[in-house]
Design a protein that fits this description.
Blueprint: H1 11-18, E1 27-31, H2 37-42, E2 48-53, H3 56-68, E3 75-79, E4 92-97, H4 125-134, E5 138-149, H5 154-163, E6 166-175, E7 180-188, H6 190-200, H7 206-209, H8 213-221
Parallel strand pairs: 1-2, 1-4, 2-3, 4-5
Antiparallel strand pairs: 5-7, 6-7
Bound molecules: S-adenosylmethionine.
Length: 222
């Protein structure tokens, strides 16, 4: 059920849901959960799900829907502005976000539901804040699934992920009447972190080095 003042799942939600795959036991963060639809789908395989929304009506709605779908025991829903309510050392295997991405003139929001679409003048206000913080909460081999519209500069998103050492690729896209919506997956860039290790000449724990060992040995020998 969708409460008043909560985003009603639409084309963006459905493109996300159709391409969402969670492995058995993974930990999931559903940022901007709305009615909880992606968190509930993720909970089928996930070990645990944290669902966050800035809109208090969405928090109650997502809790209600989790209970109605028999997954309340797996989903912890809380209110927060992006990562502010997440513990500083908490890490997730998957972070999902279908963010507000529409460019709007006014920055103030009169009603809670405006948080669902209003992305500031460029549409990138929440998007940029999210990308600049997300990797701190991502497990070492975790992934971010992120949905965006062509109305708020998809290429800028790809570049911004890469600035945070995350390799982003487009998973799928769909053309709508006035925009194209794109689902993006971002993961840590293995190559750059190896290069960074060589540059700093630091020797981390054996387990962390394992995937880079061959590369490191050759590079140091030259
Ligand atoms: C486009 S809706 C997506 C809702 C749901 N995930 C879906 O796919 O149907 C964006 C959601 O992000 C929430 N949101 C916007 N800004 C946020 C922020 N700074 N922190 C947490 N949630 C936010 C909105 O309240 C809204 O529920």
């Amino acid at each position: 059920m969708i409460f008043r003042d909560v985003y009603e799942p639409a084309e963006d939600t459905f493109l996300f849901a159709e391409n969402l795959s969670v492995n058995q036991g993974e930990t999931v963060l559903d940022m901007g959960t709305g009615c909880g639809i992606l968190a509930i789908l993720a909970a089928e395989n996930a070990g645990s799900v944290v669902a966050v929304d800035i809109n208090p009506h969405a928090v109650i709605c997502a809790k209600t829907n989790a209970a109605r779908n028999g997954v309340a025991g797996k989903i912890r829903v809380h209110r927060g502005d992006l990562f502010e309510s997440i513990l500083p050392d908490e890490k997730f295997d998957i972070i999902l976000f279908n963010p507000p991405y529409l460019p709007v003139e006014a920055d103030e929001k009169d009603i809670w539901i405006e948080n669902a679409w209003a992305g500031g003048r460029t549409g990138r206000k929440v998007i940029n804040q999210f990308i600049d913080t997300a990797s701190k909460y991502l497990a070492k081999s975790g992934r971010i699934l992120f949905l965006q519209s062509s109305l708020s500069n998809v290429e800028e998103t790809m570049k911004r992920f890469s600035k945070h050492n995350l390799h982003a690729k487009k998973i799928c896209e769909k053309k709508l009447a006035f925009e194209k919506i794109v689902l993006i997956e971002a993961k840590r860039s293995q190559g750059r972190s190896c290069a960074a290790l060589i540059a700093s000449d630091c020797v981390p724990h054996e387990m962390e080095l394992e995937p880079c060992m061959h590369f490191l040995t050759n590079a140091k020998a030259e």
